[in-house]
Amino acid sequence: MEEFLLERRHPEEAPSLRDHRHATERDRDRILHSSAFRRLQGKTQVFGIGQADFYRTRLTHSIEASQISRAIAHNLLVEQPQLGPCLTPELAEAVALAHDLGHPPFGHAGEQALDACMREVSRGAKLSGRHFLRFEGNAQTFHILVAAEPKSPAYAGLNLTRATLSGVMKYPYEQDIGNDKFIFASDLPAARWALRRGGGVLRAPRRGPGPRPRTSFACQVMDWADDCAYSVHDVEDALQAQFLHPGDLEQPRFIRRVLAHYEETRRQEAVPKLALAEVKERLSDLKRRILPSDAGDERAERKSAMRNILNDLITSVSVEPCPDSRRADFAWKLRVPAEARILSVLCKAVIWEAVITDPRVAAVSTKGREILRDLFHLLFEEVVEKRSVALFPRYYRPILEEIADGDPGAAAREVCNFLALLTDMDALRLHALLRGSKGSSVFDFI
Fold this sequence. Notes:
By secondary structure, the protein is mostly helical. The protein has helices spanning 23-32, 35-39, 58-79, 89-98, 107-124, 137-148, 162-167, 188-194, 217-241, 252-269, 276-290, 298-314, 338-356, 359-384, 397-401, 408-421, 424-435, and strands at 318-321, 332-335.
């Protein structure tokens, strides 16, 4: 790989003479051994943690996405050896392992709750523009990698290579009051360093989805691998949980609602407009592929069907050069055929209708949202009004004690960072301990 892409922001001691790993392998291993990665085992993917052992968590999703990302990279390197200066299978693997580190407890419901809390503090403190506080999972991922995850007293974060850091930046936008996807203002120096000679940090449009920003090739591979894993595996989980049945895919009302969600997201997903008849035809084909036969092992047939769909998505991609780039990992564009992208987006719409909007799942999401909101206000009051850090674990107290004069903006950011670290069960236990919603003990972990 190009040496520029393997640079690290902070100097390090030379590795052992018997450590023969590539720099991108070290990045992968640093992510794999991080506490933020381990916590993903306790964070919701679609179905809540502890409801059943079969269904995917953020951890298993990240592992599967990393395998898909590695497979795509390997295939492309075999077919296009000229990608060598900007890509290794381990780089693709590392970026995918890291891509969901910033997700808080309770999935996207938790993300929305923390963002709402930060907005509320911003309005109360009359903050505006770049100073307006927000929370967003992708921004939190980058923050963990460059600042929050401890590895060495010599520097903050994991000190990953330029290639890996740029690979996790799907939305390299400045933080502003109207932007829903961004890099935290405190992390902009690290982002600009990582993107040097590449796409750079952009000023995002204030409203509307807009065109996708220019990202590194590893980021493009990760993004498609994530889509493949998310769309196909969540359908598999929904079928196993019986939230979705093959026959649903031919029900007129179900088809109309899938089309409605597809239409809501198609600009952001960069897919074409479809007529109702086209959606009906595609869902009928999906039903045909996943419907088990009357005889044989239904689980094996379902696994075979989902594997074939996933393989089609993985092997559909190709590359094209971007000759105007000054940097190797911005010199290529991943081409995903329209049919593959449409199938992925339709699968997401199916999950939205069959699972996300199901009252059982919606109730759990609402509960998680309320728990995080309550914890935020309780802990924020503890820091700002009572000037106390007693409710926080001892390892986190020095971070809060550095806040000058109870600055509400800084306090809100650190309380939010703390809550985002928690697993679903951590948040439930902490809420029970502080609010007495169930029997608790002084030996309960915080």
